[in-house]
Structure formats: structure tokens, C-alpha cells
Amino acid sequence: MLPENNNTISLNKYISDSGLCSRRKADELIKAGKITINGITASSGNRVSTEDTVLLDGEPIRHAVEPIYLAFYKPKKVVCAVDPNTRGNINDFLDAPHRLFPVLTIDKASEGLIFLTNDGDLANEIMQTSKKHEKEYNVSVNKKISPWFLHNMANGVELSNSITPQCFVEQTGHKSFRIILTHDHNRLIQRMCAQLNYKVVKLKRIRIMHVRIGKLPLGKYRRLTEAEIATLKRHLKGTLEKTAQQSNGQQNF
Description:
Blueprint: E1 9-10, H1 11-17, H2 23-31, E2 35-37, E3 40-41, E4 47-48, E5 54-56, E6 59-60, E7 69-74, H3 90-94, E8 101-103, E9 111-117, H4 120-128, E10 135-141, H5 147-155, E11 158-159, E12 162-163, E13 168-173, E14 176-181, H6 188-195, E15 200-208, E16 211-212, E17 221-223, H7 226-245
Helix pairs in contact: 1-2
């Protein structure tokens, strides 16, 4: 039994505050027996203080000095994973001095805006409410776009026995369009296009909520401004409060 301490925090919050991962992922690490406190294998619900020695796979969990919030223009072929054993993972690409993890990721074949942070709590809140956030994309396809294609993309495509939600779609060229989605998981745009006999040639995310990629160069990142961070936190707080008051059914695409 670990000793009680009035100046303690929950173990999953302690791990999350380090910037290592979200609370949800921290719970998985604890359940897997990878965390020890003062040499004792940790259990869900444990609490720790600054005097405790907390290890992950025998290595100390180090806390970042300050929270970091970045907008990153992810290139193609970079994998949104922090596992050092994953080839082409994002931390190896960045070679950053702090361990950061990606939020609202995009697949290996796509490019564009994602968030990077060491704030596990904020990352967890974004992921919990990800289906409420607008994401905007520029998309190029393999053939001329027809009015029929635009109509179907905007009004819903049947995937996995479900219809995708209505969304904003605007043609920007003979073979290109702009689309704004909230639900965008599981390569949704590629799957919608394929269902309509089109193939995505290039996909670039240009906006997440109020944050735009702007003139950020490919493969580079910038810190979010104080105003962007404040707006993000206000948006998340409001979304979490609304989600708590509603009972929304899950949609799978």
C-alpha cells in the first residue's frame, strides 16, 4: 500500500502533466504494469507527490518546464506517432528538445496542419470533442469534378451503412475543391471520394477551428499565439459543457 500524502495528485494526471501522453493513454500504461512508484508497480487510482519516484519502464518520467502549443505543417510520409520504434515518426522528424505528441492527426499520405503539445489534459479535451471541431481541407482529385460529385459530397455519402453528415464543399479548380468537415476520421475524404469513383491525388488540411496554416512552410512549426490558445481553451470549455448536457449517438464512417 502506497503512503497517503495530502499534497498529491492522481497518477494519470501526473503522467499527463509531464507531456508524455494524455490521461487516457496514461491509464493504459498503468494498467499494462509499465509504471512504478517508489519501486512498486502502480495501480489505477494511485496518487503521487513530488517526493515520489515515478518510472516508466524503469526510466524517470520527466516534466516539461512549460506547456508548449504548436501549429505544425506536416509533410507527406511523416507518421503522426510518437513511438520511437515507428519509422518516420513525428518526433524524429522534428528533432525537438521536448517530447511532444500530435493532436487531430492526419494520415501518412496527407499533409497539412496538426497541433503538437506537451499538455496532456488539453490534448485529451481536444480528442474527446474532435467531432465538434471544424477542419478545412484543399483536395485535388484524379479527374474533372462534376456538379453531381459536389452535390453528393456536400449532402452525404453512404459509407459503412451510414450517411456522412452534410458539409460545406466548394469547387476551386477543374480537379480541386475545398471542404469543411467536423467528422473527418478514418481517411473520410478519401473514402467519400472513392465511393463516388474519384481518387484523391493530394489532400492538405489548411485550418483547425480558428487556427489557419497560413504561410507556414512545409515541415515547419510555430507556437500558437496567446490569443489562439485562449480562444482554443474557451472553445473546448464550451464544447465539453454542451457535450456533457447532451446524449449524442455515435456515428461510424
